[in-house]
Amino acid sequence: MTALASAHPLASGRTASSRLVRAYQGDRPETTPVWFMRQAGRSLPEYRELRVGTRMLDACLDPAMASEITLQPVRRHGVDAGIFFSDIVVPLKLAGVEVEIQPGKGPVFAQPVRTAADVDRLTAVDPASLGDDVFAPIAEAVRLTIAELGDTPLIGFAGAPFTLAAYLVEGGPSKDHIRARTLMHADPDAWARLMAWAADISGAFLRAQVLAGTSAAQLFDSWAGSLSLHDYVQHVAPASARALSHVRDLTYDVPGAPAAGDEPPAEPETRNVPIVHFGVGTGELLKAMHDVGADTVGVDYRIPLDEASRRLGHVVPVQGNVDPAMLDAPWEVLQTHVTDVLERGRDAPAHVLNLGHGVPPETDPTVLTRLVEYVHGWRPE
Ligand code: 1CP
User: Fold this and answer.
1) Among 38, 93, 140, 376, which is disulfide-ready with 358 (CB 3.0 to 4.6 Å)?
2) Catalytic residue numbers?
3) Ligand 1 — pocket residues by CB below 6 A?
4) What is the 101 CA–ligand 1 centroid distance (Å)?
């Protein structure tokens, strides 16, 4: 176990009792916390304005700009958390991989990783050799952001090894990630080496964010829904566990209850930095995704939250799962849907309201602000 520095927002107490952190640890605050995946970005005019003339990955590696973009949706919507503005391919770029993010498309790689020789070429860079200096722009952006956020927690994130491999092997976005899934079976050894490397790169990226001050860590396995449970457990879960092991050891103490009457003060309690694990179309994988070392499981909009909670044994906090398509529906339709999500979320020990996937770029941001107000005002019957 490694204790966070005393000035870290969790260790100093600034965010330790926030609604978000409490919910991720299984407590149920009176007000349900809410944030949105992809809350920073193209739905906000202030984001589009700031990004003019700057390429996506350059924006991610400019600490002042990344910090400002992270703060924009927190100021505007009053959400319960910031999510660090970056991308899952940033650590690959920092490791020297030739990648760019093309507008309207996503990450594109100069050299796809298709064969065992390609895997050898990629993994020749030892993730352990990437020192603090490599992650300095990330740590600096996190520090600038938490200085502005006060008691509001910042969430750090990274891509899970499978989702990174889905891009690396395909060379860019793909529908069924078929080449990646072929490599998994055609050359399981090369696949395992690729996954272990991706796990250590993502793990180092996530750890750098948490050490610099994020109060939670989310692993995005966005494309794991293209896998069978068998393939997930056999060929992917060990690498996801390895990625999370890079942050699983990070702890902080919360003071015990003060002395009362003849009772002495309680001992301080040691807690781990909360970890969230999310994927799209992963209804069949929820339990396996929890088992790799997550505290909270993110659920997409394809299965109801009470069913997700049942599959998790009713003991795991859940995050989700408003259908992003509803954001553009009439308010009454959206409100009915969100109320249903909140009610079903009561089946779990705790619930953080979010979307089932990211905010669509054409979303009217005033709808998101109104949604936050509604969630904060909602109380169970
Ligand atoms: O031109 C632009 O403005 C770039 C669009 C954009 C943005 C705003 C991309 C390209 N990435 C991001 C930021 C980003 N990426 C965040 C920011 C924080 C927030 O949520 O507000 C996060 C968490 C990510 C993570 C990410 N990148 C994921 C996992 C989350 C998810 O949405 O499933 C994935 C799959 C990516 C790859 C990626 N990067 C960008 C795009 C358009 C894509 C998806 C491409 C595809 O469909 O395959």
Assistant:
1) 38
2) 38, 42, 51, 87, 167
3) 37-42, 56, 83, 85, 87-88, 101, 103, 106-107, 157, 163, 173, 220, 222, 358
4) 9
Using CA atoms, how far residue 173 sits from 8, 184, 222, 233, 370, in Å, is: 36, 18, 12, 23, 33
Give the N- to C-terminal CA distance of the chain in Å, as an integer. 42
Q: How many CA atoms lie within 13 A of 199 on its CB side?
A: 20
- Identify the DSSP state of 142: H
User: For residue 26, which amino acid is it?
Assistant: G
Please provide the size of the chain in residues: 381
Nearest-angstrom CA–CA distance, 48 and 362? 12
151 to each of 41, 200, 247, 257, 353, how far by Cα in Å?
A: 23, 31, 22, 21, 19
The pTM of the whole model exceeds 0.85: yes
Token pair belonging to 121: 């070429």
CB of 163 closer than 8 Å to CB of 236: no
Q: Judging by DSSP bridges, how do beta strands 269-272 and 275-279 pair with one another?
A: unpaired
Task: Kindly report the number of other CB atoms within 10 A of residue 109's CB atom.
Answer: 19
114-154 residue pLDDT tens: 999 999 999 999 999 999 999 999 999 999 999 999 999 99
**What's the Cα-to-Cα distance from 42 to each of 79, 88, 170, 272, 356, rounded to whole Å?**
17, 17, 25, 33, 18
CA distance 87 to 220: 10
Average pLDDT over residues 98-115: 97
